Amino acid sequence: MYHKNFDTALSHKYLSSVIDCFKNLEDEWYIEETLFDTRVPIIKLRHYPTDLKCDISFSNGLACRKSKLVRYYNDAYKMCRELILYLKKWVIFSQLSGTEGISTFTVSWLVIFYLQVKGVLPSVYELIKCQTRSIIIDGWECGYQKNFCITPNDSSFVETLVGLFTFYAEFDYQKYVICPFLGSIIEKEKFATNELPAELTAILNEKNKKAVSLFRFDSPMCMQDPTDLSQNSTKALRKRQLRCFKEYCSSSVDRIISGQQAIGL
Question: H helices then E strands: how many in the chain?
Answer without folding.
Answer: 10, 7
